[in-house]
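Try this one yourself first.
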């Protein structure tokens, strides 16, 4: 039987769904929870998984669960089971699910102007770029649709910058992750990501993360730029230090290179500050305001789930990408820019950066207290704000499966780290709920 893209209405009901299952469990009122699976006519998990098996390219290692709706920090699967979402689309759903801020911005923008070509101008593009420049520093922004594309803009910038002296190479860090396009994959300092895809795009070399001496030794006549994540996300939630970032700036200044940060995962207030490098530079009187890289890639949380990528380029390098040098059909559409503006201004207005910083600190401390050298799988905690890594003694994916069964979504990062990426507007009660689930799962695993 062919799949329907719509869920069928329950006969006799105005709604496509009802939510009694949830209401019984949570004791919540029906307001704001209008949906539930209509199992009589809608496909169940097994059918959906089978649909993917037959028709979708199997390039993802997916967990066996199919989601149909969300509200705030929770999502519900097709069988109407509720999950606390500390994966958030891997750092995308900054305002959780079904945010009225996003829904309203989408509706208003879609009713006004969804798309117009980059042959023309529109006010939302100017407004979003102005916001980003104000929050980062003097420069300009190129808009795209994803993290890999935001990095691609940096790669092209480095080549333009180095062209006159024949420099094109970018040094990146071992353990880094920069995306899955051919160039972003070549930039990624992990063999497993690149394996099996033939000769890599030339011009990327990997140096040990956090090692300034090795990085400077690797600089050669062909080097044009250095690119790092201020906190490696996919690489296991490993944070740079202030002195490392400062040291990179000095190396770049000494050798005439551009310094780039990939803030695709760490940006949009996930660290507690708009960008993680701003957080890492805190407390450094001289440099906190003055320290800037030359380019920054952003995406993921910028529009809270609506696709967008943005590359900030410091003055005067932004003008290296003149007319005809770079483009993206959908990049910086009125719709994407309107949603990003709404999300970012809400995050700022509600001080959600400060809030996630405090909540993340509590989460980190309480989990740290649950870590024991000889019991359970929790070994240690790393990261800040809404980007925390639980370093585990077992297989991270198996632990993510066990937590899924307990109603908590997390994102593995490699074989030994489980990431916690709550929405930035997560409540204190939801943080407590996550701690309780994690502690209980850790205790269960601890008993022989
Ligand atoms: C640091 C970093 N850079 C780039 C990317 C790629 O982003 P996208 O999947 O949107 O292309 C990711 C995705 O996880 C990331 O974490």
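Now uncover the answer:
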């Amino acid at each position: 039987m062919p799949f329907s893209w719509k869920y069928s209405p329950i006969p006799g009901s105005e709604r496509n769904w009802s939510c009694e299952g949830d209401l019984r469990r949570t004791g919540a009122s029906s307001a704001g929870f209008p949906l539930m699976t209509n199992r009589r006519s809608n496909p169940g998990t097994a059918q959906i998984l089978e649909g993917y098996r037959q028709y979708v390219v199997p390039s993802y290692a997916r967990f066996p669960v199919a989601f149909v709706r969300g509200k705030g920090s929770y999502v519900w699967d097709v069988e109407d089971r509720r999950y606390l979402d500390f994966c958030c689309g891997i750092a995308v759903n900054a305002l959780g699910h079904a945010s009225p801020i996003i829904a309203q911005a989408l509706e208003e923008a879609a009713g006004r102007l969804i798309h117009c070509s980059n042959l023309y101008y529109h006010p939302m593009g100017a407004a979003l770029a102005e916001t980003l420049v104000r929050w980062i520093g003097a420069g300009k922004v190129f808009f795209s649709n994803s993290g890999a594309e935001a990095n691609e803009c940096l790669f092209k910038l480095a080549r333009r910058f180095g062209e006159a002296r024949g420099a094109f190479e970018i040094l990146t860090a071992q353990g880094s992750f920069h995306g899955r396009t051919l160039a972003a994959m070549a930039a990624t300092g992990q063999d497993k990501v690149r394996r099996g895809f033939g000769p890599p795009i030339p011009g990327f070399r990997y140096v040990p993360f956090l090692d300034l001496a090795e990085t400077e030794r690797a600089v050669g006549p062909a080097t044009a730029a250095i690119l790092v994540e201020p906190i490696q996300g996919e690489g296991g939630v490993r944070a740079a230090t202030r002195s490392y970032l400062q040291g990179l700036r000095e190396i770049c200044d000494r050798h005439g290179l551009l310094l780039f940060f990939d803030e695709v995962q760490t940006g949009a207030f996930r660290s507690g500050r708009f960008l993680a490098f701003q957080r890492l530079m805190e407390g450094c009187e001289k440099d906190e305001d003055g320290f800037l890289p030359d380019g920054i890639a952003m995406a993921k949380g910028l529009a809270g789930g609506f696709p967008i990528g943005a590359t900030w380029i410091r003055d005067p390098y932004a003008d290296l990408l003149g007319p005809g040098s770079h483009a993206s059909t959908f990049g910086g559409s009125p719709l994407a820019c309107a949603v990003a503006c709404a999300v970012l201004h809400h995050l700022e207005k509600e001080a959600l950066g400060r809030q996630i910083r405090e909540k993340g600190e509590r989460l980190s401390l309480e989990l740290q207290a649950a870590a024991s050298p000889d019991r359970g799988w929790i070994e240690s905690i790393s990261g800040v704000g809404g980007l925390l890594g639980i370093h585990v003694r077992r297989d991270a994916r198996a632990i993510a499966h066990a937590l899924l069964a307990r109603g908590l979504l997390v994102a593995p990062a490699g074989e030994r780290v489980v990431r916690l990426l709550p929405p930035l507007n997560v409540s204190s009660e939801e943080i407590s709920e996550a701690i309780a689930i994690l502690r209980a799962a850790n205790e269960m695993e601890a008993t022989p």
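Discussion: Residues 90, 146-148, 151, 177-179, 229, 233-234, 262, 264-265, 299 surround pyridoxal-5'-phosphate (CB under 6 Å). The chain is about 35% helix and 15% strand.
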